[in-house]
């Protein structure tokens, strides 16, 4: 999985490419642990994310909880299959998803 | 019918998914269904790798196909701690981010996306079978 970061002051955009699964989630988790420090606007671009399992959802949930305290998090460009998973698990209501 | 047996380690997940995906591709399984099956296989395999054995132990993953309608059956067999994943209560998917528990999502996702799940404990083995209709 590829993590592409773009930071502008306290605004951070991360684009994920590939799969967010049991094997790759620790990579994102570790990245976010430092990357979210001081960030008030976090945008996650999932345009090139092909797959997500519960390990990935857990990392997104943790990030959402952190950002709920320090600012705003938004998720963009979600593929239909991934959107279905967000629907079924109720994550569509927890995450801030923009078309 | 094809079967893969390996020591259940989380880091070998890719081997398991390759095994399943190569069979699904031979069946011309639509991408969306392939993804749902991959997620289910990942969840179940990682659970076994994480919890079935005190240290590590084997799991067999069996891939079977039925026709009319075309359906795939994937069975996980291990001889670890007896565990029925179907007994796990569903997470409350209406809770907010703060209230939401981190765990419990995996088997829930499997239940919602598969067309059938069976579990039995027999002869010292956990036997868990998922079914997904492709045709």
Written account of the structure:
The complex is a heterodimer of chains A (99) and B (135). Helix content of chain A is 41%, strand content 36%. In chain A, strands 1-2-3-4-5 form a five-stranded mixed sheet. Chain A is α/β, with parallel strands linked by helices. In chain A, a hairpin with a 2-residue loop joins strand 1 and strand 2. Chain A is built from four helices and five strands. Chain B has 135 residues and is an alpha+beta fold. Helix content of chain B is 33%, strand content 29%. Chain B is built from three helices and five strands. Chain B starts with a strand and ends with a strand. Chain A binds chain B through residues 21-23, 50-55, 57-58, 61-62, 64-65, 68, 80-81, 85, 88-90, 93-94, and chain B through 10-11, 13-14, 31-32, 35-36, 38-39, 42-43, 46, 91, 93-98, 100, 102, 105-106, 108-109, 112-113.
Describe the structure using short key phrases.
heterodimer, A: 99 residues, alpha/beta, five-stranded mixed β-sheet, 5 strands, 36% strand, globular, B: 135 residues, alpha+beta, five-stranded antiparallel β-sheet, 3 helices
Task: Summarize this entry quickly.
The complex is a heterodimer of chains A (99) and B (135). With 99 residues, chain A is of the alpha/beta class.
Note the topology.
The complex is a heterodimer of chains A (99) and B (135).
Chain A: E1 2-8, E2 11-20, H1 25-35, E3 41-52, H2 54-70, E4 72-76, H3 80-88, H4 91-94, E5 97-98
Chain B: E1 2-7, H1 13-26, H2 31-52, E2 58-66, E3 71-78, H3 105-113, E4 116-122, E5 125-133
Antiparallel strand pairs in B: 1-2, 2-3, 3-5, 4-5
Helix pairs in contact in B: 1-2, 2-3
In the sheet with the most strands of chain B, the strands line up as 1-2-3-5-4
Identify the most extensive interface between protein chains: A-B, 24 and 28 residues
- Strand proportion of chain B: 25-35%
Counting helices, strands and paired strands, the structural category of chain A is alpha/beta
Could you spell the SSE succession of chain B in H and E letters?
Answer: EHHEEHEE
Which regions of chain A contain 5 or more consecutive residues with pLDDT less than 50? none
H/E series of chain A, N to C? EEHEHEHHE
Number of strands of chain A: 5
Radius of gyration of chain B: 15 Å
Overall pLDDT confidence of chain A: 94
Q: What proportion strand of chain A?
A: 35-45%
Strands in their spatial order, largest beta sheet of chain A: 1-2-3-4-5
Q: Tell me the overall shape of chain A.
A: globular
């Amino acid at each position: 999985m590829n993590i592409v970061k773009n930071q502008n002051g306290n605004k951070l955009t991360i684009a994920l490419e590939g799969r967010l699964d049991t094997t790759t989630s620790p990579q994102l988790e570790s990245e976010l642990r430092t990357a979210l420090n001081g960030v008030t606007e976090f945008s996650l671009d999932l345009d090139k994310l092909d797959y997500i399992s519960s390990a990935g959802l857990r990392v997104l949930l943790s990030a959402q909880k952190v950002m709920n305290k320090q600012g705003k998090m938004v998720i963009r460009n979600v593929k239909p299959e991934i959107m279905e998973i967000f629907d079924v698990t109720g994550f569509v209501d927890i995450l801030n998803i923009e078309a | 019918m094809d079967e893969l047996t390996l020591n259940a380690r989380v880091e070998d997940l890719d081997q398991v998914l390759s095994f399943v995906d190569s069979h699904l591709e031979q069946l011309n399984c639509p991408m969306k269904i392939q993804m749902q099956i991959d997620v289910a296989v990942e969840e179940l395999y990682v659970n076994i790798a994480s919890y079935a054995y005190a240290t590590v132990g084997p799991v067999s993953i069996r891939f079977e196909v039925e026709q009319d309608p075309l359906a795939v059956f994937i069975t996980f067999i291990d001889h670890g701690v007896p565990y029925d994943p179907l007994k796990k209560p569903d997470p409350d998917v209406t809770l907010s981010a703060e209230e939401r528990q981190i765990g419990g999502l995996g088997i829930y996702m499997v239940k919602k996306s598969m067309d059938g799940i069976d579990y039995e404990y027999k002869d010292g083995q956990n036997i868990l079978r998922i079914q997904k209709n492709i045709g």
